[in-house]
Amino acid sequence: MSRAGVKTIRLEHKHGALFDDSVKGDHFCTASVVGSPHGDLVITAAHCVTGTSGIVFVPGYDRGAAPYGIWTVTKVYADRAWTSSADPDDDVAFLRVSQAGSIVPIEDVTGAEALKTGAPARQLVEVIGYPDSGSQPIACRNWTREPMSDQLQFDCGGYTDGTSGSPFIVYGDNVIGALGGYQQGGNTPQVSYAAVFGAAVSQLYATAEAGG
Predict the structure, then answer these.
(1) Is the pTM of this model over 0.85?
(2) Are residue 34 and residue 105 in the same domain, yes or no?
């Protein structure tokens, strides 16, 4: 799909941008709320968040506005295969988030995507992300394929730095990947990757759910 297939979207409230805690600099990655029993989990690429601190998530970020508030990342969950050797097949992380002065979980404010593991490699997906050169998200639809074991490929222009962590969404509200993995998401804006969500992601999600 060509660059013309990319569209700018507004106020996609389940998706948002990651900033450092000052929210004064540029956003650096994309993340999405994912359903969980406590309603407080966000998914992104592990390379966005490992070794960093002081991260906040701004769902629905739009030209400087934070319509659904600013949410502090209180814990990062990444697979040991990523933290020990940066294995691209495990470039996935879950983030626990909360908002100062509130006990309402983010999922009650924004809604959430459903995590889907074990999906077929060929899927028509919508990928929503925040290029670091812009202040609004973009979205594009195309079919995925599996060019190498445990990696999905998505071809569509415009997915520059900042779109790492962007969800691969199928059936309207199921997320089957997060932009990252091989080449930390791809070396060109036209070709993007995501680690396949399999048993390791399921286990990581269970750990995050349990708060371990």
Answers:
(1) yes
(2) yes
